């Protein structure tokens, strides 16, 4: 059995221990110590990494009563070794896990739901609850969680006897017996947990709730705490500052400035479409009376291609083909052609696309000379009629 130092000393970074076993496994060696400060993967929290006797610990896992350290080199059984945690990573996990306790405790008490899933990922924490939560409540939940941090409430670890445990309203995903470790944040959470936590909420620093989405019968919340929350807020602030400079607007008014710019852009697009349609009508009049029309116009959007082809096609009984692009970068098309002619065009010009009702859009990899030659042959042989 491995003595688990992290349970009572979560801030222990270095320790000494004796190697009890070392066996080769796929990708390295499995090392068992008589005691360890490395937390093994469990309860949604990843296993610790670091150094052990000069070799790297790449992961830590539970195996019955033992903690197994997956190392990139062997260690001699019986040897006394020094262990050192990757403390930056461990403390980050402690901040995330502690933040999750506060948020889950507040939500479960407020909405009468259960935390049915927790995953501490490389980028964010994901928590699943089994009842719906109104999305508009998220800011209030976040403020309440941060109020616990501002009050620096303690994280208390206890091992109550069976009678005391029976009287506790603690959170747990399953029925528990024997020695149960309870983590309590006064006024915020009481939960059965084997993970590592900060001493008091102030060490979390900040909690940021990123999203709330429907998930199964309840919701999934994405959370950042501690350094991750700070880095996120700093990145958003830097981005907002850059936007404020671009829009010549105060940083607290960038949304209003962006909305005005969006409206102006919509108006400009409306005017542009109107101007394009007038130009397309003039082009269609130029092709009126022709049996078939092939033309190229620079820098048209897919919607512009469609509108121009519809007008040209209405003026030409056998159809029309409109292309926009350039040799070397490819050509987009909108065509009014019978299905058999469209298939021949895509095959000959290395094209992809389709449609219905004799109208299709797509692209070809051919250059303009190949496109012109194909349609010259098609129109001469009357295959498109």
**Helix and strand sequence:** EEEEEEEEHEEHEHEEEEHHEHEEHEEH
Give the overall shape, derived from the CA principal axes: elongated
Number of domains: 3
- What can be said about the biggest beta sheet? 6 strands, antiparallel, barrel
How much helix, percentage-wise, in residues?
25-40%
Describe this structure in words.
It is a single chain. The protein has 385 residues and is an alpha+beta fold. It is built from 8 helices and 20 strands. It folds into 3 domains: 3-85, Elongation Factor Tu (Ef-tu), domain 3, CATH 2.40.30; 91-234, Threonyl-trna Synthetase, Chain A, domain 2 (Threonyl-tRNA Synthetase, Chain A, domain 2), CATH 3.30.980.10; 270-380, Diaminopimelate Epimerase, Chain A, domain 1 (Roll). Strands 2-3-7-6-5-8 form a 6-stranded antiparallel barrel. Helix 5 runs parallel beside helix 6.
Task: Summarize the entry for a quick read.
The chain is an alpha+beta fold. Helices cover about 35% and strands about 30% of the residues. The protein is elongated and about 95 Å long.
Features:
385 residues, Elongation Factor Tu (Ef-tu), domain 3, Diaminopimelate Epimerase, Chain A, domain 1, 3 domains, 6-stranded antiparallel beta barrel, 8 helices, 20 strands, elongated, disordered C terminus
List the helices and strands and how they pair.
Elements: E1 3-4, E2 14-25, E3 28-33, E4 35-36, E5 50-52, E6 55-63, E7 66-71, E8 80-85, H1 87-111, E9 115-120, E10 125-129, H2 138-150, E11 156-158, H3 162-167, E12 182-185, E13 189-192, E14 207-215, E15 218-225, H4 226-247, H5 254-287, E16 292-296, H6 302-315, E17 319-326, E18 330-336, H7 339-348, E19 351-356, E20 359-364, H8 368-380
Parallel strand pairs: 1-4, 16-17
Antiparallel strand pairs: 2-3, 2-8, 3-7, 5-6, 5-8, 6-7, 9-10, 10-15, 11-12, 12-13, 14-15, 17-18, 18-20, 19-20
């Amino acid at each position: 059995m491995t003595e688990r130092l992290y349970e009572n000393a979560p801030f222990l970074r270095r320790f000494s221990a004796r190697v009890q076993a070392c066996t080769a496994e796929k990708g390295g060696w499995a090392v068992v110590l008589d005691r360890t400060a490395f937390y093994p993967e469990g309860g949604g929290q990843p296993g610790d990494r670091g150094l052990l006797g000069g070799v790297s610990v790449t992961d830590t896992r539970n195996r019955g009563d033992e903690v197994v350290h997956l190392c990139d080199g062997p260690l001699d059984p019986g040897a006394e070794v020094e262990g050192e945690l990757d403390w930056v990573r461990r403390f980050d996990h402690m901040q995330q896990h502690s933040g999750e306790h506060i948020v889950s405790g507040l939500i479960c008490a407020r909405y009468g739901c259960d935390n049915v899933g927790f995953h501490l990922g490389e980028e964010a924490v994901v928590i699943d609850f089994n009842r719906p939560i109104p999305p508009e409540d998220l800011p209030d939940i976040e403020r309440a969680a941060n109020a616990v941090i501002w009050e620096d409430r303690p994280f208390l670890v206890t091992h109550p006897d069976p009678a005391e445990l029976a009287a506790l309203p603690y959170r747990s995903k399953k029925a528990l017996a024997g020695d149960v470790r309870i983590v309590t944040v006064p006024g915020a959470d009481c939960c059965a947990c084997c993970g590592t936590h900060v001493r008091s909420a102030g060490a979390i620093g900040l909690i940021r709730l990123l999203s709330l989405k429907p998930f199964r019968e309840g919701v999934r919340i994405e959370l950042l705490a501690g350094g991750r929350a700070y880095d996120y807020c700093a990145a958003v602030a830097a981005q907002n500052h850059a936007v404020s400079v671009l829009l010549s607007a105060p940083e607290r008014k960038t949304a209003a400035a962006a909305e005005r710019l969006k409206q102006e852009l919509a108006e400009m697009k409306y005017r542009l479409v109107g101007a394009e349609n007038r130009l397309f009508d003039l082009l269609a009049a130029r092709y009126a009376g022709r049996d078939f029309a092939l033309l190229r116009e620079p820098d048209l959007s897919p919607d512009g291609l469609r509108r121009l082809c519809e007008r040209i096609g209405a003026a030409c009984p056998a159809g029309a083909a409109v292309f926009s692009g350039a040799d070397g970068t490819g050509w987009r098309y909108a065509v009014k052609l019978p299905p058999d002619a469209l298939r021949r065009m895509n095959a000959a010009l290395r094209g992809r696309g389709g449609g219905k009702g004799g109208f299709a859009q797509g692209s070809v990899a051919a250059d303009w000379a190949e496109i012109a030659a194909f349609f010259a042959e098609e129109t001469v042989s009357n295959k498109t009629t």
